[in-house]
Amino acid sequence: MLKGNILTTEGWIYGSVRFENGRVTALEGHIADPLVNDAPYILPGFIDLHVHGGGGRDIMEGGDAADTVTRQHAQHGTTSLLATTMTAPRDELMQVVAGLGEQARRRATDGARMLGVHLEGPYINPGKLGAQPDAAAVAVRDEVLKYLELAPIRVVTIAPEISGHLDIISDMASRGVRVQLGHSLGTYDDAVNALKHGARGFTHLFNAMSPLHHRDPGMVGAALAHAEYAELIPDLLHVHPGAIRAAMRAIPRLYVVTDSTSAAGMPDGEYRLGSQHVTKCMGGVRLADGTLAGSTLTMDQALRNLVSLGIPLADVSNRLSRFPADYLGLEDRGRIARGAWADLVVLDREHKLTATYVEGESIVEYA
């Protein structure tokens, strides 16, 4: 049982949450403004749908790298995540995805739950790689279906302007895969057409996509005008606070991702991002040419960053937990409610993490 200011699906209550066998069994308390007391905040655990690495390990390494990554992010309040791949040659990527399929069937001790895989590439525009390796490919139905057989592919990033990709978007959407638009030189019309074919979101909004211009609104303009969901990296390096605010006003269920790399939780130095070598320095991760290459962000820091912009804690929590769960169609995660998984984080009054529970198991307890 935990006591404090609990953010429920109906709003804040002051009281207690009980859980047993990994599930919330009872909520007791009364409606209360958390600003009128000094009790801790109890929020749904964070759900990160775009994670490349952490703790010095990269998802593309295969082997036990994913276990290290899930443990590292659990230390920062992430209770479930999508292991996110990098663009790579077909055989290499198939091997990595197959390994992730095996790991998705279990949860590493003291780690976050891996909900599945976010396939970020290879179906992207070679003219908008960002930090992705130069191994972009055109999607072929049989190949895509093979990936779906190997692992629970929950999200796929795709450039819609590539010939044949609209049919792939429709096919994947019909199978329940969330298709996101990104790493794209597509026009506003390309993006709108992709949404009509079943695309649901946008990958790291503003980054690695055609920008907004008032006479050429591009991919960003389509997202702001039409999207219900999009992911965004609030490390305050990838996106200016003003752009974050604009996106929050325009996109009802804008949600937070870290796009974290193996450098997350590690000191400055040289690290791996897929086949690329990156440098962590001054809070960011970059390629040799200075291109931003993922981040070192953790979800608890993302929360503090958004709160520092004056965004209410309840709104921030929705963007770290409830909205990504809703995006994947998960009704028993991302919220504190009877019957939901007991994925919980406890924060002190300065919004610092003091405890994390993954499916009822205590992962983090700071003095």
UniProtKB/TrEMBL annotation:
GO BP term, pick one: N-acetylglucosamine catabolic process
Name of this protein: N-acetylglucosamine 6-phosphate deacetylase
NCBIfam families, alphabetized: nagA
Domain of life where this protein originates: Bacteria
UniProt-recorded Gene Ontology molecular function terms: metal ion binding; N-acetylglucosamine-6-phosphate deacetylase activity
Residues noted as binding substrate in the record, renumbered to the chain: 131, 207-208, 215, 238, 292-294
UniProt xrefs under Pfam families: Amidohydro_1 (PF01979)
Taxonomic placement: Bacteria, Pseudomonadati, Pseudomonadota, Betaproteobacteria, Burkholderiales
TM spans (from-to): none
